[in-house]
Model the fold of this input.
Amino acid sequence: HAGSGQSVARSHSTDPSRMIDTLLRRAEELGVSVEFGIRAVQLLVEAEAVVGVLCEISGALVEVRAASVVLATGGFSRNLELLERFVPHMANAIHGGAVGSEGDGLLMGWKAGADFRDTPYVKGTFGIYPGDDPREGGTGILAVYKGAVAVNFSGRRFVDESLPYKALGDACLAQEGHLAWQVFDQQTMDRDDPDVHIYWFSGRLATGLLETADTLEELADKIGVPADELIRTVEGYNAAVRGEHLDAFGRRTLSGTEELPTELSRPPFYAHLSGSSVLATYCGLTVDPETRVLDVYGEPIPGLFAAGEVTGGFHGNGYVTGTSVGKSGIFGRLAGLAACAYASDAAHV
Amino acid sequence: HAGSGQSVARSHSTDPSRMIDTLLRRAEELGVSVEFGIRAVQLLVEAEAVVGVLCEISGALVEVRAASVVLATGGFSRNLELLERFVPHMANAIHGGAVGSEGDGLLMGWKAGADFRDTPYVKGTFGIYPGDDPREGGTGILAVYKGAVAVNFSGRRFVDESLPYKALGDACLAQEGHLAWQVFDQQTMDRDDPDVHIYWFSGRLATGLLETADTLEELADKIGVPADELIRTVEGYNAAVRGEHLDAFGRRTLSGTEELPTELSRPPFYAHLSGSSVLATYCGLTVDPETRVLDVYGEPIPGLFAAGEVTGGFHGNGYVTGTSVGKSGIFGRLAGLAACAYASDAAHV
Done:
C-alpha cells in the first residue's frame, strides 16, 4: 500500500514479531546462543578500547570480556527524562515504545566518549488510542488517510490531515489535552482493510474503541465536543471537498497519494480518540559506514559497534514509514560482520 | 532599568569588558599567570581521572599535567554544526557570540563521558542589525520595549512585542528572510537612553542604522515593504492602543512592566532592520553544586570541573536577562575554589 508520504504504493505490511522469530530460529540453527535475563550495566574500557561488558546476572555483577561489542539496545522512548531533555513537548506524548527502551546503550556509548546526532527529531506517531488500553495494539489507526478529519476538543480542525503521521503527532500534541478525535463517516469505514493495522477500522469498532452515532450532533454529544462547532467544521470541510473554497488547512489529498478527500456525509459517523505516541526515537550514536561507533572527534572507539535504533544520523528530520525495520535489519547484519572481523583480527586479541 | 520580562527595575547595566579587566588586574596582583595563544586540544585522562590538558603551543603538542582542570571555554555560538545539531532553525540566525565559542570544552567533556543538558533551549536574541556590520556593537536595540512594533517584509506584525527578547528571536526566525523591521515614531525616539546599549536609539540614528521618513508611506517605500499593509498594520495597532479592540497579538504593555504601549503617530518615523543573534548557548555539561563535572551515570569525573557558558542546567527554557554574567562570575569563583581544594588534597597528587 501507499504509506504516509508516499506518492505511489511502496509499503509492504509486515509483522515484526514474525520477522524476529524467523531471525531467532536461523540464529539457533547456526549455533548462536542468546542469553536472556542478563542486564548490560556498563562497557568495560581498557586503554581507550572496549573490551567487554559489565553485566548483572542474577543480582551479581559479572565482567564479560569480548573482543568486540555491538550496542543494539534500541532507543529511549520509555525514558521520560531523556525524552524531555531533547524534545521537551514529548512529555505530553504517549510513551508506547518497546518495554526496555530506556537508552542504556546510549548512555554506555556516551560514557565511552561517543558522538551522537538527530536529538531534536524525536516525534510522536498520531492515531494511538490513549490510556494504556489493552485493546490498543500499539499501531493506532490512521482513518485520516482514508477520509477522516482530526478535530480537537473544541470541535475544530487544526492541521492538514494528509501530512505524514509524525507531523500530525506534533500538531496533536499542541492541542488541549494533547489529544484529538479522528471523525469519519461510513464511506471511510468502507475503506477498512483488516490486513493493514492502521486501516483496520472494523477491528476498532468490534472492540469498542470507536464512538458511533447516526448524526454528527449525536456524535458530538457522545464525545463531548460542542455540536455546533463540529457541524460547522464538517460543513466547511465538505464545501472545500466540493471545490467551493480552498481547504482551511490546505488539504488537497487523502494522504501523499493523488486520491482526493471525500465529504463526511454518509451515516453512521465514527470517532476515534487519538494521541501521539513515541514509538521509537530516531536519534543516537554516530557510526561510520562499517557501524563503528565514532567519538566526538570523529575517531572510531576501538571494539565498539552499534546498529538499529541506538544509532543516529539515518532518519533525519523526516521519518519515512517502515525505515526503522530496514535500518535494524541491514545495519544489524553489517555490525555483526564488522564486529566479527574486528574480533578475528589478531591485533586486537 | 527594568529588563526584558521584569515587572520592576532589577537590571544594572554593566560593561562586561571592564568587568573582565578588573578581574584580570586582580588576578595579576595575586600572582596568577595567564597564558594566551595556547590552544587546549584534549583532556589527558588516566585511570578515569583527568590529569591535565593536551595543548598546542606554537604548533607543537605539549602535555600540561595538572591535579585538576576547570573547563571555562564558553559556549558554541560560533560552531554552526553543533548549533544546527541541537536547534536546527538556528541555522538561520546571526552567529554573533564571542569569537572562539566553538564548543571545544563541551567536546572535551563529552569525550570524558560527561553528561549534558538543556540542548533544546538555545535561542537567538532579537534586535541585532544583520550582516556583520561594524556599526552593530553586538547588542542590537530593543525599540519594541519602548513603543516600536515589529513587522515582517510583508508589513505585518507577527508577535506580541512585549515578550522576552529570546521569544521575539524565535518569532523573527520564522519570518521571510529571518528578519524583521522595528518601526517606531518620535515618541519612542524620545525614550532614548545612551546609558543602556539596547535603548540607545539616537546612537543608531547617528551611525546611519535607522531608516527615517516623515510619513509611514515614505518609510515603507524606503524599507521595501508594501505601504498599504504597513499603514493598515499601524492603524490596527493604534486602534488597539486606544482601546477600540484587543491587540491582534495580545500585546498589553511595553515590556514586562506595567507601562502601556503608545500610538505610532508622531513623525518622523524610524525603522531598524533586526535579526536574531545567538549570543550564547545556555546549555552544556552537567555539574554538581561544587562544579564537579558529572558523567552520564551521575558520578563526578575525578579532576574535572566546569563553570560558565560551557555548563547546562542553569537557565532552563526561559533565559533571564543578565544571568550569563552572574552565572560565570559566581560559578567561576566556586570552580576555582573547588579545583584548588581538590588539587591540595594529597589523595589525588
